Amino acid sequence: MKAKKVLVILGSPREKGNSAILAEQISNGAKSGSAKRETIYLHGKNIAPCKACMSCQKKGSKGCSIKDDMQAIYPKLIESDAWVIASPVYWFTISAQTKIFLDRCFALPAYNKDPFRGKRIAVAMAYGDTDPFTSGCINALRTFQDAFRYTESLLVGMVYGSAMAAGEIRSNEKVMQDAFDLGNKLIAE
Question: Any alpha helices (H) in 33-172, and if so which ranges?
Answer without folding.
Answer: 70-79, 96-104, 137-150
